[in-house]
Design goal:
Blueprint (H helix, E strand, L loop, with lengths): L1 E12 L2 E11 L11 E3 L2 E3 L7 H5 L7 E3 L10 H5 L6 E3 L7 H7 L7 E3 L7 H4 L10 E3 L7 H10 L4 E3 L5
Parallel strand pairs: 4-5, 5-6, 6-7, 7-8, 8-9
Antiparallel strand pairs: 1-2, 2-3
Length: 168
């Protein structure tokens, strides 16, 4: 069976933009030649300038990918993000997240991808991520995390690919 992306819609939920991917299945065993499109609510993102607070609670319960890059998400609001046990991919790049916010993420052991590029995190904060044993990709470029700390984290989570370029 082949899947083809046939459209992309943006829904507004109380001022929050959610990107919804629409896919359709082509071919297959005994399938209809005119399949009905399926709405994929497993991916969500918040655009810059959107109000993050209450919108995190409105996420679909089965969301697996959340893009908060460039948003005004706060350290405290990451506690709301952490309640979604289905999230496997989390993009926090370009946000004001600090070491304090990372404490909420330490329980998200299902995370496979975490993007922290351009955040305010340091060596102390990254040490809290050692519990994320399913992490495959960790993006740390343009943070205050040192290569030495990234190397130690790699020792704790050996199957993780870590991208680190210290902030200038």
């Amino acid at each position: 069976m082949l899947h083809r992306r046939v459209g992309r819609t943006v829904r507004r939920l109380a001022g929050w933009s959610v990107v919804v991917l629409v896919t359709t299945t082509i071919g297959g065993c005994g399938g209809s030649s005119n399949p009905e499109p399926k709405v994929d609510t497993s991916q969500a993102s918040i655009q810059k300038g959107a109000d993050v607070g209450a919108q995190l609670a409105a996420l679909a319960p089965d969301v697996t990918s959340l893009d908060l890059s460039g948003s005004a998400v706060t350290d405290a609001q990451l506690g709301d993000v952490a309640t979604h046990s289905t999230i496997k991919s989390l993009n926090l790049s370009g946000t004001g997240i600090t070491d304090q916010g990372l404490s909420h993420l330490s329980g998200m052991t299902q995370l496979d991808y975490l993007d922290l590029r351009g955040t305010q995190i340091t060596d102390a904060g990254v040490a809290q991520l050692q519990t994320l044993t399913n992490l495959s990709y960790l993006m740390l470029a343009n943070t205050a995390v040192t290569p030495k700390t990234a190397y130690r984290l790699k020792g704790a989570i050996p199957n993780t690919n870590i991208d680190i370029v210290p902030a200038q």
